[in-house]
Amino acid sequence: MLTRFKYGIFGCAMIMMMLVMSSLDISLSSDVNFADINKNEFFSPVIQKLIKRGVDTNFINKIINNPATEFNERFVRINVTGYLSKADYSSQYNNKSVSKSKDFLKDNLPLLTLAELKYNVPKEVIASVLWVETRHGSYLGSSHVASVYLSTAMCNEKQYIDMNLKNLREKFKGSDEELTLLENKINERAAKKANWAIEQLIALEQIDKFSSTTALELKGSWAGAFGISQFIPSSYVQWGVDGDGDGDIDLFSLPDAVFSVGNYLKSNGWGDDETDRRNAVFHYNNSSAYVDAVLKLASLITDKPAPEIQAEIPQTETKIRAQAGGQDY
After folding, report:
1. Share of the chain above pLDDT 70, in %
2. Measured distance CA(7)–CA(202) in Å, rounded
3. Is residue 130 assigned to a domain?
4. Is the separation of the CB atoms in 68 and 144 below 8 Å?
5. What angle do CA 274, 276, 277 make, to 5 degrees?
6. pLDDT digits (tens, 9 = 90+) for 123-143
7. Cα(301)–Cα(58) distance, integer angstroms
8. At residue 144, what are phi and psi to the nearest 5 degrees?
9. CATH code at 93?
10. Rounded to two decimals, what is the model's pTM?
11. DSSP code of residue 307
12. What is the residue range of 283's domain?
């Protein structure tokens, strides 16, 4: 199991001194020019949380001052309010999707069969997940992963809570009572997603220390998911698998991605019962439409009848959806 090294007292003291000594009044805005404003000062709310959680200060300095690191208001918005926009997965099981997925099965049959034997998850389901996520690796996302989480970790700062509430009010068409309920939900999600982002930064530190994956340069989705299987960092740490036996877990490697998907679904309840299977796929992406798309595509590439669309699974939001794409509202 991956474990974190404790930060040094000297490093902690230096960062805390830097934060205390800063007297600059920083405007938290997407227009921030990091050439003029120190990144450590801008991200100070996040830095303090990471220090309290025991994250190595050397890692904090590396991700904050990485030239690729930036603040992006879009990540604050979509990771908090994006759930209000219903995703359309109907194109994931059209003729093109079926044809491409059948070709993928044929071209990678030995690998997919090995994963099926090991995890008892049908190869067609693994192939379908990888198609819906990244078109079997042809679309991996272009968002800087560390920036996604650093930005999202700022979402419970007052300015960004107010920003999301303002956007909500401008678009909302319902009653005042319904609006109040949604406003409360946005406040709750801001706190939840900020904490979630901190957890992902902690997992990113572990990846940086114990994997050949260059965590600071990772590119992925707006949700911070990466690789052919689109795992978020905590999923990589918990369910990533070395599928090709080279001693490293690289989700940009097809064998590792295939085995990791099998391990993920098996570890999260995949079994003989249809409800358990749906729950396992739902855990991968908290959308009943996503579950329907994956299982329907899987059935189409095995020439079996498509399963009937069942009642929606309660939106427990076990994990944010790890899809490379996704709708922005």
Report:
1. 81
2. 12
3. yes
4. yes
5. 65
6. 999 999 999 999 999 999 999
7. 48
8. -70, 115
9. 1.10.530.10
10. 0.82
11. P
12. 87-142+219-300
Which residues does 266 contact at the CB level (< 8 Å), separation at least 6? Answer: 119, 120, 121, 280
| Residue 281 domain-assigned (yes or no) | yes
Q: Which two tokens stand for residue 84?
A: 């209000």
Q: What is the DSSP string of 168-187?
A: HHHH--S-HHHHHHHHHHHH
Asked whether residue 279 is domain-assigned, the answer is yes
3-class secondary-structure state, position 131 = helix
Read off the amino acid at residue 290.
Answer: Y
DSSP string, 49-88: HHHHTT--HHHHHHHHS-TT----HHHHHHHHHGGGSPP-
For residue 148, give both structure tokens.
């996604």
Can you tell me the distance from the alpha carbon of 203 to that of 282, in angstroms, rounded to the nearest whole number? Answer: 22
Nearest in space to 7 (alpha carbons), one of 69, 65, 50:
50
Residue type, 150: L
For residues 201 and 209, the answer to whether their CB atoms sit within 8 Å is no
Q: H helices within the chain, ranges in order?
A: 9-21, 39-42, 44-52, 57-64, 73-81, 95-107, 109-119, 123-134, 145-152, 158-171, 176-210, 233-239, 254-267, 274-284, 288-300
Query: Nearest 5°: phi and psi at 220?
Result: -165, -145
Number of domains in the chain: 1
Residue 69: inside a domain:
no
Closest CA to 102 of 139, 136, 141, 137: 136
| Cα distance between residue 53 and residue 199, in whole Å | 9
Taking the CA atoms of residue 210, residue 216, residue 219 and residue 222 in that order, the dihedral angle to the nearest 10 degrees is 100
So what's the pLDDT on residue 263?
Answer: 98
Place of tokens 């249809």: 274
